[in-house]
Amino acid sequence: MNVDPTNAGQAQAWDGDEGGYWATHADRFDRSLARYQPEFMAAAGIRPGSAVLDIGCGTGETTRAAVRAGAASAVGIDLSADMIAVASSRALPGTTFVQGDAQIHPFPDAAFDGAISRTGAMFFGDPGRAFANIARALAPGSPLTLLVWQPPDRNEWIGALAGALAGGPPPAPPPGAPGPFSLSDPSVVRAVLAEAGFGRIEVTGVSAPMHFGSDVDDAHRFVLGLLGWMLEGRDEAGRRAAGDRLRDTLADHLTPEGVAFASATWLVTAVGSGGG
Ligand SMILES: C[S@@+](CC[C@H](N)C(=O)[O-])C[C@H]1O[C@@H](n2cnc3c(N)ncnc32)[C@H](O)[C@@H]1O
Q: What is the pLDDT of residues 117-145, one digit of tens each?
């Protein structure tokens, strides 16, 4: 796979263990975001017969949703071979899945008339270049629809889970670094998209509970698999204490629908100029 050097670290993670975990737990991750899916797809406004690009498509739920919503074709691109393999195994007529770096992938010019990304567009090493490449791949006037996380202090799940494992507040990510919260400041989103040639940029807050498991044991296993790397270097007693703190936090968030934490996203819509 041809990856821009600015994305080498993300490629190593997503085309490695992290992507492997997401691929194995595809349904769980889809369920965790399920409350966002109707609003996200409504905002995408998939047009009948259109050609849609799904950026950072993962295991392809949103790519499949695009053809179900009437797109004639939908191409999902993702760094992770494992996630692309799951997506391909679930393909629908009209869906195509490609392993690649959306920042530099040689999409044909103006090949798509809509682009979507559900929490897949915050990991670019050079966001300006990535969104310019996406703008180039869109026919003029085509909509771009992104779901991105609001800042960590509005996302109870990250503070609570990482805090339980770390035994204190999680370290703040460096500003501007690729990662889940890199587009959490609307002024950054607006600036990056405008620079890449997008217009009519709108940023709307959407909040929903995020689901982590059917009960405390189930969520505990899942979160330890996801964030267990935070315990590297701890001795047995330290690991046990962190596991216990996590269990307490999960128990505090057990609802009749399972373990859920508050979360908040920005739904970003914009229109491409076809330039880039
Ligand atoms: C948080 S996951 C979201 C996956 C999927 N959109 C979903 O909603 O389940 C982020 C995805 O973005 C992908 N990704 C990150 N950087 C990328 C890049 N430069 N090009 C293509 N995919 C990328 C990752 O491999 C990962 O699958």
A: 999 999 999 999 999 999 999 999 999 99
